[in-house]
UniProtKB/TrEMBL annotation:
<dbReference type="InterPro" id="IPR051609">
    <property type="entry name" value="NmrA/Isoflavone_reductase-like"/>
</dbReference>
<keyword id="KW-0521">NADP</keyword>
<feature type="domain" description="NmrA-like">
    <location>
        <begin position="6"/>
        <end position="242"/>
    </location>
</feature>
<keyword id="KW-0560">Oxidoreductase</keyword>
<dbReference type="InterPro" id="IPR008030">
    <property type="entry name" value="NmrA-like"/>
</dbReference>
<protein>
    <recommendedName>
        <fullName>NmrA-like domain-containing protein</fullName>
    </recommendedName>
</protein>
<dbReference type="Pfam" id="PF05368">
    <property type="entry name" value="NmrA"/>
</dbReference>
<dbReference type="InterPro" id="IPR045312">
    <property type="entry name" value="PCBER-like"/>
</dbReference>
<dbReference type="InterPro" id="IPR036291">
    <property type="entry name" value="NAD(P)-bd_dom_sf"/>
</dbReference>
Length: 333
């Protein structure tokens, strides 16, 4: 029996790279990486081709018939498109319907939350709803908050080399649990989910462990021997900042620092105050529970990951964006 053919958009990105690795390690898929025609010659895509990954051009701004042709003979289509390009999936979903894709996995791969609290999520929900209006077979996968974004800086600056979101403040009292997943484990879950008939036309929530910010600070202090200052920020302060940055964005809608501030404060409210990144809230929203579906997944523990961080052995993500993130949060605090 032929292996299902998976088309993956965003294979050279952080999320897409993890998904690609998970699919390869699973060994049960024929994989095609889809990229913009002008990107096929870029080093990252050439490297994939040299490793034996089939590459195929896909221009989401081109005519629908060309997009449909690019999706020919693909069974499962996974979109790990960049966060700023979510609405580019509108022509993708329409073409996937015409191409008779058997399972479309639109870009989610984040924390559960309702509509109306986060712009990026609202754009994703627009794609989810379009998929359902098209009667396109789908699976939506959320993975919680990444380990790589979960911890604060140390006073010494020792772990700045890998800090993703420099969490200078703790939302609320710091005792709200949040579901965390090592980015490196995302692909393992995706490989399991997309071949599981139980997840067809469903939304699944997969994650590694639950931690609070207070416990994360405690662990990092123990491993590093440093005392981390703890500043707690109430919900009202985050709400004030969100309103202020929305007003600023009306004048400078493309300012990357302003856009990050908005994302950061909205996530703090959702994850750290309202406890939306939890299995309980995910189940309330109707998600399938990943722990029940795949209790045998071998994932990296949070404590082991933090040991890597303190020992200088972790690998940074979004390195090109880190100066922007630090600038935005410096202005915030």
């Amino acid at each position: 029996m032929a292996q299902p053919r998976v088309g993956l958009i965003g294979a050279t990105g952080e999320t897409g790279g993890s998904i690609l690795k998970g699919l390869i390690e699973d060994g049960g898929f024929d994989i095609i990486a889809l990229a913009r025609p002008e990107s096929l010659s870029k080093r990252a895509n050439v490297t994939l081709k040299d490793k034996g990954i089939q590459m195929r051009a896909l221009d989401l701004e081109g005519p629908q018939e060309a997009i449909v042709a690019a999706l020919k003979d693909i069974d499962i289509l996974i979109s790990a498109i960049a966060g700023s390009q979510q609405l580019a999936q509108i022509p993708l979903a329409k073409a996937a319907k015409v191409a008779r894709i058997k399972r479309f996995v639109p870009c989610a791969f984040a924390t559960p939350m309702p509509v109306g609290v986060h712009q990026s999520r609202d754009q994703k929900e627009e794609i989810f709803n379009l998929t359902k209006r098209l009667h396109l077979p789908y699976t939506i996968i959320d993975v919680g908050w990444w380990y790589q974004f979960s911890f604060p800086r140390l006073p010494s600056g020792k772990i700045d080399y890998v800090v993703g979101f420099p969490n200078e403040t703790i939302p609320g009292d710091g005792n709200v649990p949040t579901a965390l997943t090592d980015l490196r484990d995302v692909g393992k879950y995706v490989a399991r989910v997309i071949k599981d008939e139980r997840t067809l036309n469903k939304t699944a929530f997969v994650y590694n462990e639950l931690w609070t910010q207070n416990k994360i600070h405690d662990l990092l202090e123990k491993l590093s021997g440093e005392k981390i200052p703890r500043k707690h920020t109430p919900a009202e302060e985050y709400e004030r900042k969100v309103d202020a940055v929305i007003a600023e964005l009306e004048t400078n809608p493309k300012d990357p620092v302003l856009r990050f501030k908005k994302v950061y404060n909205q996530y703090c409210l959702s994850v750290g105050i309202r406890a939306e990144n939890t299995p309980e809230y995910a189940q309330y929203l109707g998600y399938l529970d990943g722990k029940s579906l795949y209790p045998d997944v071998n994932f990296t523990s949070y404590e082991n990951y933090m040991k890597e961080v303190v020992d200088g052995k972790a690998v940074g993500i979004y390195d090109e964006m880190r100066p922007l993130l630090f600038q935005a949060l410096k202005e915030e605090h």
